[in-house]
Amino acid sequence: MTGLSADAGATSGPAHKVKSTVSTVGGHEIGYPHGHVGHLNHEEEAALRGFKALLAEHGLYQAGPPPSHDDQTLVRFLRARRWVAQDAYKQFKDTEDWRKANNLDVLYDTIDVEAYEQSRRLYPQWTGRRDRRGIPLYLFEIRHLDSKSVSAYEKSAENTYSKAHVDGKTPPKLLRLFALYENLTRFAQPLCTQLPDRDHPTTPITLSTNIVDVTGVSLRQFWNLKAHMQAASTLATAHYPETLDRIFIIGAPYFFSTVWGWIKRWFDPITVSKIFILPAHEVKATLEEFIDPKNIPAAYGGELDFKFGQLPKQDPFIKERAEWANGYTDFPTGPLYWRPVEGDPSRLECLAVGSVNQVERRARVCTIPKSFPAEVKAEEPEVAAEDVEKTLTPGAGEPVPSTEAVAEINKAVQSLEIADKSEDASKISEKVAQVEAEAKAAPTTASA
Q1: 428: pLDDT confidence band, cut at 50, 70 and 90?
Q2: Taking Cα atoms as reference points, which of 374, 410, 411, 394 lies closest to residue 446?
Q3: Which CATH class, in words, describes the domain spanning 102-315?
Q4: Is the Cβ–Cβ distance between 111 and 176 less than 8 Å?
Q5: Cα–Cα distance, 251 to 217 (Å, whole number)
Q6: Are 338 and 153 in contact (CB under 8 A)?
Q7: φ/ψ of residue 146, rounded to 5
Q8: Nearest C-alpha neighbor of 396 from the set 448, 437, 349
Q9: Helix (H) or strand (E) holding 350
Q10: Is 395 exposed, middle or buried (0-12, 13-18, 19+ CB in 10 A)?
Q11: What is the structure's pLDDT at 402?
Q12: How far is CA 73 from CA 61, 77, 96, 108, 240, in A?
């Protein structure tokens, strides 16, 4: 497929994808699901343990249960800092300080729903669909982000209602933008994580795939957006690391290859390395390589009737799994998030939050089955070797395992690794089956 190198022209022939240095082993890029929870190698597992210990030492992490931060969040910071725990700690601490200074949780919980909707209509929007890996697919049409709409947005942002008290260092227009990032990490990604119809259902979703349409964007508009896009990208990279995966740029104007050299400097190298600029004749084929046609918007050669500005057209599988509540039959506009259903750990509930006419809303939208993380039974107490024969003592008439059989069974049990977060259920099941098979195959003697 067509990619983009640091010096390649955007539309002047094939270019090579820039290798991301975010997660590498021996200089080779490791892509999803590698470097994600459930697919960590020994070095990455060790880095995660060390990172947790470092955070706990400084009062930034509590193991729980439940833990103060889930593993997938911590791993995002480690990937962003190439698995160097000390570097990840600095970025994590800066983010926690920033979130606290700007009351991000309160902002998201109480932001005016119409103000949130105004932001959503300007920025990348979830289509309600996923790519072939189960990662949420977003669409961004930059032409809507013109000077007039940005000016109106900035003015209204000054008066956005929420109960959050902020430090004044982050512009209100960007705080409203980050309410959308909160929606990504607290609604869209958790929802996609709970959908088991994907290749790696034991690996949580922490990324997003983006189609960025620059059709009709003039050179002047690009230039006018420079400061805004730089600021947004800088803060997003700092405080929401490793939430972007592939970015497909479509509709690049004739001058794009000329100006790409300075446009790419607006963004950090990691973001640039994930960008693919697609000539018109390659759009459909390339998108279909990564996204099922039924999930590609019709404007780009797919079958999905979705236009920028609309609410997500939810995947039928999502709607089938949901048990709707309070009259809802789809997800409403405004901030949403998931939490465990009280009294039923097997399900999660979606809450609609935010404020309408300065009155906070707290409405259950639906519940869905919880498939991640899989419930793991508590580890049984270890049985001393001398007690093994006692536990295997049969009743009258039952087969009596021989000494050799007892030894083989004990050896098999000792070789069984108790369910680990880094292993999926199928591997664990295989090991259990192996132990059972060895036990059945072991020689026996008859009891009296």
Answers
A1: very low
A2: 394
A3: alpha beta
A4: yes
A5: 9
A6: no
A7: -90, 175
A8: 448
A9: strand 344-352
A10: exposed
A11: 52
A12: 12, 7, 12, 18, 9
Of the candidates 395, 107, 397, 338, the one whose C-alpha atom is nearest the C-alpha of residue 204 is 338
Alpha-carbon span 165 to 182, nearest angstrom: 17
Q: What is the mean pLDDT of the chain?
A: 81
- Residue 49 token pair: 């343990």
User: What is the gyration radius of the CA atoms in the chain, in angstroms?
Assistant: 26
- Phi, psi (rounded to 5 degrees) for 160: -65, 130
Summarised one tens digit per residue, pLDDT across range 67-85 is: 999 999 999 999 999 999 9
Looking at per-residue pLDDT, the higher value among 225 and 397 belongs to: 225
List the one residue out of 355, 352, 354 whose CA is nearest residue 365.
352
Half-sphere exposure of 313 (CA within 13 A, CB side): 14
Query: Cα 425 vs. chain centroid, distance in angstroms?
Result: 21
Say whether pLDDT at 435 is over 80.
Answer: no
- Residue 442 is predicted with a pLDDT of 54
pLDDT tens digits, residue range 352-401? 999 999 999 999 999 999 999 876 444 444 434 343 333 333 333 434 44
Phi and psi, residue 378, nearest 5° = -60, 145
Looking at the structure, give the CATH architecture of the domain made up of residues 19-101: Orthogonal Bundle (1.10)
The answer, yes or no, to whether the previous bond of 124 is cis (omega within 30 of 0) is no
User: Which residues, 6 or more positions from 238, have their beta carbon under 8 angstroms from its beta carbon?
Assistant: 91, 94, 95, 98
pLDDT (tens digit per residue) in 275-292: 999 999 999 999 999 999
Neighbours of 8 (CB within 10 A): 19
In the chain, residues under CATH classification 3.40.525.10 are 102-315
Give the number of C-alpha atoms closer than 13 A to the C-alpha of residue 295, restricted to the C-beta side. Answer: 26
Percent of the residues in the chain that have a pLDDT greater than 70, as a whole number: 77
- Minimal CA–CA distance to 127: which of 309, 349, 353? 309
Which amino acid, one-letter code, is at 200?
H
CATH 1.10.8.20 spans which residues of the chain?
A: 19-101
Whole-structure pTM value: 0.77
d(CA 51, CA 272): 27
Task: State the burial class of residue 274 (Cβ atoms within 10 Å of its Cβ: 0-12, 13-18, 19+).
Answer: buried
